[in-house]
Give the backbone structure.
Amino acid sequence: MAEDNLNINSPDKDLIDSFLNGNENAFNFIVRKYQKRVYWVVRKMVLDHDDADDITQEVFLKLYRSLKDFRGESKFFTYVYKIAINYSLNHINKNKKINSRNSGIDNSLIVSQDEIADEALTSRERTKLLEEAIESLPDKQRAVFNMRYYENLTYEEISSILDKSVGGMKANYFHAIKKIEKFLKCHNKSELVESK
Amino acid sequence: MKNQISKEELYHSLPDYISGNLNDQELSQAISNEIEVNPEFKTEFEEIEKTLKFLNSAEFSAPEDSYFNNLPVKINELISRETLRKSTWYKPGLVWKWLVPAMSVLLIAILLYNGSFQKADEVVLKQIEKSGTTSIENVNEETIKIPKVNQEDENLNQNTSNSTLKNTNLRRLKRNTAVTEVPQSIQIAEKPGRAEAILEQNMISANTELTGGADSESEDDILLMNEEYDNFEEELMEFTPEDRKNIIENLAKSQI
């Protein structure tokens, strides 16, 4: 049977059809196929690992419930992306944890400073700076920046996910980068920016 | 030839130009030209290039390696929990989903039903107010059937008022049944309501006025019975004493 041949590399349509025909295992393949991408989409939006973990699970739960509504009009990942971005934006709006974020992963990196080479320290500071810079962006601008810069989505795809005009997306991306630039200047981190 | 590209579009396309994601060759050429001729635009180009350089060099802190191995398990557990929760609460939820609208429709139907009869009541009450209680026949002949008590019945009642004592028991018996028959004599065609109750009372009082009291309401029926009783007595006298005794015994047995 075709269901027996399914794996993580099977086309999305086959996995979806199989799941809709009652093969629960097909959904496991969908999870394994997209979990990293979904996690990182969410993580770059909410920045905190624990929040990203919770939201990623919720995104897949939502996907499990609503997969029957997917009509195949857009790419499957665009559909998943839309759920992930909406959940992330809802989370940001609910919590507004600006400046109070404290990532558990970052805590795990805190070790004796003697053991840290200058390069490693610089890397950690860069990460912190990057997260703070992204955190300084307004919600929608952050979404556009992440989708364009990290996911390399087209403006058409971004506009369909956020239900906004294509021109507006392009302007949003430009202003997001300008805002990050301004943030770096304000925090007098130009030496970090130029060090690489 | 494409329309002249605005300055705004040139600026907005700068990040894609630097990243190498600008597919529009004409726009790309226009940006290159602008960088050469416009120092301000060149400065903007350099600033954005610097920022993108930083973004390229910085990375998010990654979760532990085992995280993505465990994530599908956690997702499956969450789905199982939610499915179980839904199966427990979904059914009563479904009941409410259907029960509440059904109850609402039922309530509206009852209100409409009562409302329509209230209107009918109002019409009847208006008719009563117009015609008064003395002319009952004009009140609502369509909806109310009233046994007509006319002057002939009244005369007959007066003529037979001095009937013999032997009819007393039968009269009492008949009167008892007649009393119960009074409300039945007022037949209301539709569902009884407040107006009908008022009407009924009016009927009774009108009947009382016409026939001279509650006891004489079914006097005409009693008089007919008295006549039948007299005939029966005469016929009985024609039989032999033995036959009469048998007939009386049979009548007693049959409890007539």
Q: What stands out?
A: The two ends of chain B are 119 Å apart (CA to CA).
